[in-house]
Amino acid sequence: MKSRDRINGGSGGHGGAAAKKTVIVTTSWDDGHRDDLKVAELLTARKLPGTFYVTSGGLGESSRLSAGDLRNLAAAGFEIGGHTVSHPVLTEIGTDRVRREVVGCKAELEAILARELVSFAYPKGKFNAAVVTEVKQAGFRCARGVRMLSFACSFPPFEMPVTIQAHPHGWPAYCRNLIKRGEILALAKSSIMIGRSANWVELGKALFDCALREGGAWHLVGHSWETEKQNGWAELQEMLDYVSGRPGVRYLTNGELGKLVASTRQARPT
Ligand SMILES: [Zn+2]
User: Of the candidates 2, 114, 220, 249, which lies 20 to 30 Å from 47 by C-alpha distance?
Assistant: First the structure.
């Protein structure tokens, strides 16, 4: 099996037919703004998973989630992940401070939740080898960046990519993201999809259809404060409606996806 980005569904079924492709839906929400509670309501109504990446500094302050909110989200089945103490760009600060930001956040959130934190999101998606080392050493099992337009089911667990952001990115943002990675073929393919899509929801639907067809993980990332600022709740609901309740699709938190990826990478002969 030479599939690079796919994990075969294990359930078999149609004997002799092509192996069933695994399709995964996951969502993540950064920063710990109070509007995350609104996102959680929308996700709950559709039985969708969500990972909320929270900065531990300033919890309970005016626009931020409180410790009680975090406990309620966790009790409702959502995952809480780490997002540093004070949201610095980790590639721009010294190792000692990176460590304090990463370890401090994990300890504070674990004390509130009385459970282990497994997932981390890099502020602004910025990381390098030294940052990854610190995040690993702190005891996180996976970490998410902001590399977009990915369906990968196989990736280094500390470089989890995403598919689409709940944000009206124009063409330039997606193109920059792909050009930075030197993925010209992906750019050509995506350009067609982006060009046909009137807005981010249309693009999100086209990308989800692609994941359904070819297999892959569809990962929606967002900031609830941004959705509120842009009055984008109707679009978000439309997007969530489209991807929820699909037979055969696996709905996973980021941590569950990270665990799955780590286990399949370990199992793969090298
Ligand atoms: Zn952030």
Answer: 114
Establish if 81 belongs to a structural domain: yes
Domain count, the chain: 1
Residue among 162, 131, 160 nearest 255 (CA): 160
**pLDDT at residue 14 in the model:** 39
Domain range enclosing 224: 23-267
Residue 36 is assigned to a structural domain of this protein: yes
Q: Cα of 88 to ligand 1 centre, how many Å?
A: 9
pLDDT for 267: 72
How much distance in Å is there from the Cα of 27 to the middle of ligand 1? Answer: 15
DSSP state of 66: P
**Residue stretches of the chain with pLDDT short of 50:** 1-18, 270
Does residue 137 lie in a domain region? yes
User: What distance in angstroms lies between residue 124's CA and the mean position of ligand 1's atoms?
Assistant: 6
CATH code of 228's domain: 3.20.20.370
Produce one character per residue of 71-82: b if its CB has 16 or more CB atoms within 10 Å, e if not.
eebbeeebbbbb
Residue whose entry in the numeric block shows the structure tokens 């399709």: 23
The encoded tokens of residue 218 equal 């569809």
Residue 1 lies in a domain: no
